[in-house]
Write a structure and sequence with these properties.
Chain lengths: ~375, ~375
């Protein structure tokens, strides 16, 4: 089968880590394992610099037509003062919304070789493997009104609106329950039903979907503030956490930082399956940001971007077995002690971005 | 001077930990150090059980007239199904709103004797002393509309609204800057300006107040998700964190859990100074909840409640020197190895709620 991959490297270290994925894609094509058609576009600050938008209509059209978007990272101090509507993040938010990528999957895995890099005690994080399922196209990110109004007399009023409808909660709940069945069969649903009406609705719908469709999966409800606390106290109590867009933003960052391997964590954002073809629109991106402070120094860790491509192989490109092999190649390289700066601990780094990418591809070739 | 204290012990372990504060108050009166008039009321589930409301009008009036409210904790599984408007939390939220307690101060301090109780490495949390200043009467907690609407066709829509006006951000920013001046002179302002209009406004106002009134204080802006991450990675980078109601809820829980001493952390909620008397309305409560699972077992740690009374001595009762002494008494008891269950680590507890309270009062008497 042939697949269209649309690459949006973005800003900062985005292009550097994407380059390592491109090398792996080229190898898949050269070996005849897959037929990947690759196109490239601009997003974020680099798109703004080129044409004054965080993403162009032409690139949006290519993203819509692709089988998977591979996304690097956006933003940096250079664009801190650009108008709100064309700030770098606007490109990412438009991709999520217009492609209908409602399900954001963020695994937080603590690699044994790296457990000491965590700020948490080894026994708290060693072997950690949780999955945050974050709703990505609703909530306070997109609800209207979203305005700043001048009230005169020196006062302004800022408004953001959190909106959730039944169907939005139903579909993300199903994603979480389905994934839990392939894992340790437990879902923790996080909201603030004691303060928010959307939390009350969230709780009600998740409870109903569970009872009607997934009675065999263990379900617990947890208040989002308590969930943040429990993630710090004893994260291994969790398997799948399902939560809204804003809580998901914060909780997934906490979970990522627990692992001590921020430069290694991938994510997948998926749409609903197409009624005819069954294909889902999708976007894959590392959890880390554009890290402008280290851009161009060769210090960036490409593993999160490579592992994001691994998630694309699994969820969009029909190559789950190669996704497994890519994970094995990453684990092998880590076991050999190859380290970019972010995961070197008190030792000096012994690999640049390119060397890490090459080492992983080298291991992949042996599998 | 004579002061009116209004005690709302609430549910679960609330009454047990409040009892230890009552003993300390009685001692202050007996020694003639202060003249505290004490009255008691009901809040939360216990108020609902008594008269169907989370707090009665009579008790609200007493709270309004008091110099300080001492609040235990509310909630428990017993009241999980009561109607939204009269759920236990509604009593606390009404107190905050009607008393105008816009400034919530949550210190996160890691007591040296307890650093090992943290899930984080000792070097990450030892000596930690940060202060979260949370806006408490605005944002998504109180904004309208806050509704669930039935759309027919099996669909409902939940809405919560985050609203902030200039004056609300100005006054909480001033509280944060003023407190920073008495500490390490640094304020970190956390919002999501890349996604939320209220975040854009928050950022703008904090920046303006800083430049105009507090140029000598160091100010940094941090995205709320990154702040949660940084709290886990290296919390000692922070001094004062100022943030909105909802982010403050989550970030202060993360900060509290870092210290490994959740049962020990107090909080103060303050209103604006009265134009005539200069007095602020105020409420003092432990950061921990009602812990229904251990209620009645004598396992509850009264330190957070006692330290909350210490904050009342400092901020509302004109007895800052006695607040210092109370802190010293707590530190002395900890140094002696006296431990309730929550802070005993792998050792068995050697003190009940009452024994811990008595030990602290005993030390106080020596100072
Ligand atoms: C860049 C930003 C808009 C984004 C978000 O808030 O969703 C990021 O923090 C994330 O988690 O992917
Ligand atoms: C009990 C609840 C309403 C409250 C809140 O969300 O503010 C609590 O979590 C807190 O932090 O004081």
């Amino acid at each position: 089968a042939s697949y269209n991959l649309f690459l949006l490297p973005g800003d900062g270290i985005g292009p550097e880590v994407m380059k390592e994925v491109e090398a792996i894609i080229a190898w898949f094509n050269a070996e005849g394992i897959a037929r990947f058609e690759v196109d490239r576009g601009l997003v974020g600050g680099s798109a703004y610099d080129a044409h004054g938008q965080a993403i162009s209509e032409a690139d949006m059209a290519k993203a819509m037509a692709s089988d998977a978007v591979l996304f690097g990272a956006v933003g940096g101090p250079k664009w801190d003062k650009v108008p709100y509507d064309v700030r770098p993040e606007a490109g990412l938010l438009r991709l999520r919304k217009d492609l209908g990528l409602f399900a954001n999957l963020r695994p937080a895995i603590c690699y044994p070789a790296l457990a000491d890099a965590s700020s948490l005690k080894r026994e708290v994080v060693e072997g950690l493997d949780i999955l945050i399922v974050r709703e990505l196209t609703g909530g306070v990110y997109f609800g209207e009104p979203k305005t700043i109004t001048d009230l005169g007399n020196g006062q302004k009023r800022g408004i953001d609106t959190q909106v959730y409808e039944t169907y939005e909660i139903e579909r993300i709940a199903r994603v979480a329950f389905d994934l839990a069945k392939t894992r340790r069969n437990k879902v923790s649903s996080a909201e603030k039903r004691n303060v928010m009406k959307t939390g009350v609705l969230w709780n009600e719908i998740v409870t109903r979907i569970h009872a009607a469709e997934y009675p065999g999966v263990q379900l617990e409800h947890v208040l989002a503030d308590n969930c943040a606390m429990q993630l710090v106290r004893w994260p291994k109590q969790y398997d799948v956490i399902v939560t809204d867009n804003l809580f998901g933003d914060v909780l997934s960052d906490v979970a990522a930082m627990l692992t001590g391997s921020l430069g290694m964590l991938p994510s997948a954002s998926l749409g609903a399956p197409d009624a005819k073809t069954g294909r889902r629109k999708s976007l894959y991106e590392p959890v880390h940001g554009s890290a402008p402070d280290i851009a161009g120094t060769g210090a960036a860790n490409p593993i999160a971007m490579i592992a994001s491509f691994g998630m694309a192989l699994r969820y969009s490109l029909g190559l789950g077995d190669w996704a497994d092999k890519l994970d094995q190649a990453i684990a092998a390289v880590l076991a050999q002690g190859i380290r970019t700066k972010d995961i070197a601990g008190s030792q000096p780094a012994n690999a640049t971005t390119t060397q890490m990418g090459a080492a992983i591809l080298g291991e992949l070739k042996k599998l």
